[in-house]
Amino acid sequence: MAAAKEIVRKPVMATVRLTIPAGAARPGPPVGAILGQLKLNLMAFCKDFNARTQKYKADTPMSVALIAYKDQTFDYVIKSPTVSWFLKKAAGVESASSRPGHLVASSVTLKHVYEIANVKKEDPGCKHLPIQSICNSIIGTAKSMGLKVVKDLD
Known about the structure:
Elements: E1 12-21, H1 31-37, H2 42-52, E2 61-69, E3 74-79, H3 83-91, E4 106-109, H4 110-120, H5 131-144, E5 147-150
Parallel strand pairs: 4-5
Antiparallel strand pairs: 1-2, 2-3
Helix pairs in contact: 3-4, 4-5
């Protein structure tokens, strides 16, 4: 009987969630303060993060889930911006409706929804979902923000 491959797990010290603008990770606050407390290599994180997010427009808020291990190493996953951020950009508004369902803040097209779904499809939590399900979720988010989803803009 063949021996099973042994999986070695590192002891986890902390799990941290951050929102950092694309290409703008710096060793100063807030990134430096959080990673410095955990005694992690700030420059290695900043250089790697900035290199991995250079395809995004500057100041695009990226969600980062970082796992710090007790041996001062770390792993992290970068997720694309939130659906609400994409919808606000597509609709050209600064904020959502103050009374969703009663006041319409703006409109987005089905093409916008599909393009956002294609970006979100690359996120680790959405890879297994069909594009139709992601689109339905985005439409629901748009409605909860007071955005009207239309076939074409007039």
